[in-house]
Amino acid sequence: MPDFREILGERPEGCSPSSPCGICDRCCVQIAQAARLEDAVHYRGKLHDLVGAAIRAIDETGRVHLVRGANNYAVKGGEKWCAESDADKKLESLAQRLGSLLVIDAIFGAATDDVDRITSINDLPTDVSEPPSTLHPCVGCREHFDGHPFIQLSTRYVTAGFNDGGEMTALEEHTHPAMMNKWRSTVPPTPSAPPIYSQALGLRPAF
Fold first, then answer.
1. Domains in the chain and their CATH numbers?
2. pLDDT at residue 127 above 60?
3. % the chain with pLDDT above 70
4. Mean pLDDT of the 80-94 span
């Protein structure tokens, strides 16, 4: 299987599959996948309907924080929410407890690698020249993140696709502008770029 080194890089010193650091890219993808397998709920009970997410953020002191979320659609026609929005609610609660702005360094997603299912989940246009090989944030989540006060221009979206055996078979990476521009036909571009809070706070990202 591919190791996606060009996106995920190498594990940092002291991090291994048996002793994960919990904050590097490889660990964050696995944390998103763990949220998918352990926390996600869908009324159909099918693995390919489950989605997990993890958001890595940096506070004003330079400390790294990680929250995870999962989609939930327990009852057909009932309330539902996305994995990314679930994680973001936890991040906003964390920011309130800390009394601090947080800079979102990266948003990680884990879902099925079934391209047909990916298209149907996201209700993506069928005529795009390069359909995604992984599940991207939905229209509602893209609109939310495009106006999010913690988002930077350099915020990365790392989206992974897993087969039914739990192997990661696909991985994509986009910056925030690239993700928004990819689906500009469904999300109108914002009139001004989101502020770069790491610069405003004088933070030096640790990644």
1. 14-201 (3.40.140.10)
2. no
3. 83
4. 96
d(CA 106, CA 97): 21
- Rounded to 10 degrees, the C-alpha dihedral 50/10/153/139 comes to -10
Decide if 91 contacts 102 (C-beta within 8 A). Answer: yes
Name the nearest CA neighbour of 173 among 187, 186, 155, 190.
155
- Please list the alpha-helical segments (H only) found in 49-204: 83-98, 115-122, 139-146, 176-182, 197-201
The Cα–Cα gap between 82 and 93 comes to: 17
Which residue in the block uniquely carries the two structure tokens 């350099």? 154
What integer best gives the mean pLDDT of the chain?
Answer: 85
Q: Given the structure tokens 């929410």, which residue do they identify?
A: 81
